[in-house]
Design a protein that fits this description.
globular; three-stranded antiparallel beta sheet; alpha+beta
């Protein structure tokens, strides 16, 4: 489970990927629609989508000539359970937790 958690948290560490997940909460989206609000190339967005897909946070399927993205609602269940275990001690400061994750990811790279 630890490797799966590492993959999910690494995917969530990037603000662009978190924004993509927020967009997909509304509805399934074509890759080109996902890319539209970002000031980066379609290739760069595709790389983000690959990371989210490998983490199991989204799925992609081709419908005709269009590739669609869909959020996987149960994908963060293990991460959520893991984070909630810290709630028994004190309220979790998500900003501090994000800084911790970024520091950990930087130190292991």
């Amino acid at each position: 489970m630890s490797n799966a958690l590492d993959t999910v948290f690494a995917a969530l560490a990037d603000p662009t990927r978190r924004a993509i997940l927020s967009m997909l909460l509304e509805d399934d989206m074509a890759v080109t629609d996902v890319a539209e609000p970002f000031e980066m190339s379609l290739a760069a967005i595709s790389k983000h989508l690959v990371i989210l897909t490998k983490a199991g946070l989204i799925s992609q399927e081709k419908r005709g000539r269009v590739k669609w993205c869909k959020i996987e609602p149960n994908a963060m269940k293990d991460a959520s359970v893991w984070m909630q275990s810290f709630g028994q001690f004190e309220e979790l400061d998500m900003d501090a937790f994000e800084r911790f994750l970024e520091a950990e990811l930087t130190s292991t790279s």
